[in-house]
Predict the structure.
Amino acid sequence: MKCFRLRHVLGVSPTPTCAATLAINRRPQAYQPQAYCSEGTHAYFNRTMSQTQTHTESVDGQDHDEVQKKAKNRRPANTAFRQQRLKAWQPILTPKTVLPLFFIVGIIFAPIGGLLLYASAQVQEISIDYTHCRDEAQNTSIDSTEYQTIPSKYTSSSFKGSNSNCSSNPTYKWRSYNINRTYYSDHPVDTSVCSLQFNIPDNLKPPVLLYYRLTNFYQNHRRYVKSLDSNQLKGDAINNNSLGACSPLNTDPNGKPYWPCGLIANSIFNDSFANPVQLNVHDSSAFNVTYNMTENGIAWSSDKALYAPTKYDPADITPPPNWYLRYQDGYTSDNLPDLESDEAFQVWMRTAGLPNFSKLAKRNDNETMQCSMYQVDIENNFPVDIYGGTKSLVISTRTVMGGKNPFLGIAYVAVGGICIVLGALFTVTHLIKPRKLGDHTYLSWNNDQPSTATATGISRPGNDAA
């Protein structure tokens, strides 16, 4: 074949100087050209082959780079969800669609708020703040009957009405006295008792609940909430190295672990409430009748599952610092607390979310609390003056909506009222001065003042630029 045929195969236009022929041996993998061309043609052939090889290597390199780029690509998958192509409905807000919504929300929320307020008003409740009983009440002997009137700022009550057989005038009295209290040791403890007398003007139907209410006590503090060991409360004998969550109350100076450890258990509310005693009962064989209340059933069933009898040996553990007066000689097999059945402890360990809270202490689910004069004696142990808080005794009933709390009802009524007022205002505005949808005359550049247009370099239509 002529040389120009080989040049045609290589994609090179033939040259008139080529007069030689090439014998090409066709083999499975490559061509073996034998040159019979001139020296210039043979050099041209070699140069062309070199360029072809370089181009091939360049293409291979680009393909390799593209493969690497594709491997590193973090583009989301091409799906409707990942590429945000799901069908959506975007309503156009017009007066005809928005104004009815205001009235609908108002019509729904206002009656619900009214029902919540009505349910809250059905709760009958009496509250007495006894924080300053030790300092302000008359300090008498244990057998004294002299009581002092409690200042009105420390008392509050809410009753639907008054029973015709009982006095409707609120009466609140208190006195203070000291006793020697012996717990689990032979060491008596001097304890202050606050005795409260109050009248209930109407019968309280069961369930009748007795709460203690604390203010300015931040059980929701992060460090306080985390200061416990759940495995220890479930009965496991945890070694000292695993009680870090209870710090700084994980072990005593001698290396014994506190049980239960942590800040929550150490600060347990330790005031004790005696059962209310009905005074001056004329139609009974006894002059005073005790209204029996119990601590059973005050904790949630879910709380009880968090506690179990401990596997510690009593000699290997020590009470928390604030429990010392109750366990001055430490733990023994006879006085070791049973946290699984101590519902008052379980109630305290369920921390409150707000600094002002109430916790259930006693209840009576069967008997009506008759309208009368009652007396409750309280062992005044829990200190609240050191952190500027208060503590109160609360006796209350409840409804299907819970205890007395008008906040939710007020919030619903307020939202419903605001929606109705806004709906009426916008409706009047729409009727007096309607606005066409998509009116371009309200666009900002159609309302610019001449000074603004000049300052921004924008010439208004019909005006020549300066």
